[in-house]
Every structure is written in C-alpha cells, then in structure tokens.
Amino acid sequence: MGLRSTRIRGPVAGLVAALILGGTGLATGCGPRAGRITDVGATGGTRVEGGTATMALPPAATPNWIFPIGAPGYLATYNSSLQHLLYLPLYQPEKKGDALSLDSPRNLAEQPRYSDGNKTVTVTLKKGYRWSDGKPVTTRDVKFWFDLIKHNKAEWGGYSPKLLPDNIKRFQAIDERTFRLRLDRAYNPAWFTANQLLYFTPLPRHAWNPDDEDPKKVFARLTRHAKQLSAFATDPLWKTVNGPWKIRQWATSGQVALEPNTRYSGPDKPHLDRVVFKPFTTADSEFNVLRSGGVDYGYIPPSVMAQSGKFKEMGYRVDPWEGWAITYLVLNFNHPTAGPLLRQTYLRQALQLLIDQRAISRVIWHGSADPTRGPVPASLLAKDPYPYDPAAAKRLLAAHGWKARDGGTLRCVRPGTGGDACGKGIEEGQPLKLSLLSQSGSTESSNQMQEIKSSYDKAGITLDVRQQPLNTVLGTTIPCERTEPLCKAWQLGFFGTAGSWYFPPDPSGEQLFATGAPSNMGNWSDPRTDELIKDTEYSGDPAAMRRYGEYVARKVPVLWTPNPAYQVSVIRNDLRGVDQNPTLSLAPQDWYFVRQGAGRK
Predict the structure, then answer these.
(1) Which domains does the chain have, with CATH numbers?
(2) Which Gene3D superfamilies is this protein grouped with (predicted)?
C-alpha cells in the first residue's frame, strides 16, 4: 500500500493525547472473557482453549474474493491470505532464520522430486487430508485446479505467457496421492518450486464439478459465484473446505469471521473458537478502536510509534511486521497522453531522482520504512541507482528539451526523437503534467504523495493526486490496451500503504515485469528484461538474480518508493502463537489465549 508523514495532526493527535492521559484501564470483550487484559507479561501464563480473537484489516481493505483462483482486480494479499485458511495450497512459505523456506509442516504435499535433468517433477500428497464433507483430498483435486487454469488462463490473475500452465506438457496422476509433471524444458528447481508449485491448490472436484463439466463452463460458474460477495457465508459451494477454518460470516462491509473446520486433518488444529477480521476505513479509526480494546491484534500508525510504550503498559506487545516486499508507483505506459511521456527513459529517471526516499522513510514513516532500490528486496541490491538529486533531474529534463516560463510547468520546446529532444509522441508545447490515483485511508500515504507532489512542483512537473479506496485502485490500475476506455482512467497508480508487492521465497520478476505478466499493471515491455527474468527461471546461478535486479532498477519501469513494514503490529500479551510471516500469510489456527493459574490444555 504506501507511506508518508509530517507532524502528528488531526484525529491522530487527539488520540495520542487521549492515550497519554487515559491510563492503563483497557476493556475488551474479544478475548476469552471481558475485562482488563490478563497481566501475564510477554511470556507467562497457561494456555486455554477457546475464545475469539479479532484482527484489524489494513485501512480501506475489504476482502472481496473467495475463489482460490485469483482474478485481475481481486489480487489483494488479504484475499489470498484468507483463501489459504479455507483451501490449502500444496506449499506454504515460512521464515526460517533470515531466509524463507517451503519446507513447512503445514504443507499439504511432501517436498517435490526433480528428475530427467530438471524436466520432470513428482509430487506426493501427505496422508490423511480430507475435505470437510469427509471425502479424501486426492490428485484428482489437484488436476481439477490445473484444468481450470489451463483452459481459462486468460482469466486467471496469475497467468504469465509461456509459464504456468503453458510450461507443463503433461499432468499425470500416478495414483490417489502422487502426480507427475512433464515440463517443456529444464528449470531451476528452486525457482519452479517457489514460483510455480506454490500456486498449486487442490479444489473439491466432487463438490464443484460433480457432473464432470467442461472446464470453461465450470470456471464461468465458479466465477459467477465468486462475484456474489453477499452470499459467501451461505453459498453451499464455499462450505466444502480442507483448511483449518470455515466461514461463519463474510459481510459486504468486509468483516470476515471464521470458525474451526472440525474435519481438518492437518497438524495445526485451531485453538480458538472463532477469529474475526475487522475492516477499517482509515488507520486513525483503527487506532481509536485498538486503544479502546476493540481488537486483539491491530496496528498503530507510524506517526504514533513514539507512544508505543503506553500500549506496553496496557498489556500489549508492539512488533513491526516486516515483509519480503518492494513498493512503487505503477506507470501506465499505454495511457493515450501520458504513455508517450512515461516511455521516455530519461523522464522516468528524472521522476525517480525527485523522490527523496530516505527523508520520506525517516520523517513520514518514522523509521518504519526503507528505500526500495529496484525490483527485488533491498537486501539483494548493493546500491540505489537513483538517490535523491533534484539538480540532476532538472539537468536531465533541460537536456531533452523541457523548459518552463516564469517558474511554471515545464513544456516541450524541442519535439522529436533525437538525443536532445523530448521523445517520440510528445508534441511541441505539451506540458509535463501527470495524474496519480492513490489509495485512501492512510495518513502516511497521503502525506507521502503530497511530499512527492511538492518535489515535482519545484522541478516544474505538475502532479494531480486523487485518492480512492484500495479495492477501487486495485480494480482500476490493471493492464489495459490503449484503445480500452479503462486505460484512460489512470496514469500513475499507488496501492503500497503496506507494500506494493510481496514475493514468494524466490523474488524473480515473471509476475511483475515480464512482457504480458499478470501483475505488470503498466504494460512494461523490454526484451532485455525478459531475457534476464528467464535466466533466473532456468539457471541456479545466484548472479542471475543480481543481474536482473540491477538492470531493471536502472530502467525504472515503475517509480520506487519507500517500502514500509506491512504494519506496526500491536498484539495483546495474552494472545500467543502469532507468527508474522514475511509473505503475509496467516496462521490463526496457531493462536491461543493464556491466563494466570491452571487452565484446560
């Protein structure tokens, strides 16, 4: 999503004052009982079974897609995080030390076996997994998922040309628990497991396709049901699950309540009676509910991090949720008027040089964000190719024929395609003016956009900023053709209040920056980028990822912005088992409350 800041003001300032003056009496009805938070410290207490835990959703985030095959415009992380609690993927990443691993006890399958020079993959499902209606989870359910994406790949939000499902020549079910994939060539096993097998999600074929219909007809029917948000909790279709949870409530407001799936056969059965995911329009409104005890697992805006000690006094722990992510402004290269501007490399470089990532991270995010250096997590790149340098940006623009009169907006005075001209498709006298569609609900994001706008204004670039709810921004900033009406609706887009893109363990770019990739929202297309991405897919050489990262960082296909922590979490001390996964997956089945004295284990 995104971040930014100046001074504490408005509702936040009032809440901080109330927090300071309000003492430590915090009531809550969300845990196993009402009253003050149990004073058990951060590690003491005895585990009890049962209770309800309420977790706050990000600002203006409302879960709106339940079908475990994501569709364009419905790819928000909180959608997939909830889906995976109902429908288990074969593999789930988890943090082990400083790295991410796909060798998790939560996995539905054993580790894959590669053979035939890495052109064949064999996967065996673990024993004993069943659907909530008692039917076993089998390779037929995996094949059902595969057939749906194979025959409807254009409608699948995870499709990249020549990758899954195109790169699988044959899906062979060996028996009820083992299947084999014949690939179209040899692949880097680490990449294929992390970025292809990670998608595989068995679906209940016996419940969703009992009449063995054509995959296109089935997919269309399932998609129709998936767009009926008000019926998610009552539709019989979504009641057959194999995960640890099932739906109790899914309101159109975005509030979701889950209860244990009593037929779940995995190793991590739920301890709680219920888990509730509560939406908020803004971070400020969530902060108010958090300090009054309305959520057990929430977050504080970075602007009030200095007051985190008060929450600790009330019986909370404060823990920033760091993500394996990057954050950026998307550029619509196919916009009819802004596209010709954004396709100029020098102009993108100038726009990047005018974003003061370090100051924004320090002042607006209060240290809870770090600069994004390129298309991979910052730790994988040695340096920032475009640190803040307004003078260099102005020189670049002047050298390519942009000039302002009386300190106003820059205009093209040397049209054409020469080395000192404005560039192809840019007319004489055209102003350097852009518009940005940014998500609402975050003071930090709003302040960040105003800071960038101010920096651009000083350089003679006009930036108009419009704010809309997150789902609106996600549904608008999607890949488009120049002739489509929707392509005129946005020029730049921002949905990075909590990070724009969260990677699987292998942070390659086939989903983001490859030509035609599903999350390549701005339609970036560059042959060298495609070549370097393929190198990461085919080769196990660690240098392949570095070469890709450094090259794409210099090409600036998006504008890199500070990458915040997903959130600065505030969690009741008596709520335990919370693991803040860097990929933003959730495991509330591991959560439990503790209390003083003996309890039922």
Answers:
(1) 46-61+243-323+567-595 (3.40.190.10), 88-208 (3.90.76.10), 325-564 (3.10.105.10)
(2) Dipeptide-binding Protein, Domain 3, Periplasmic binding protein-like II
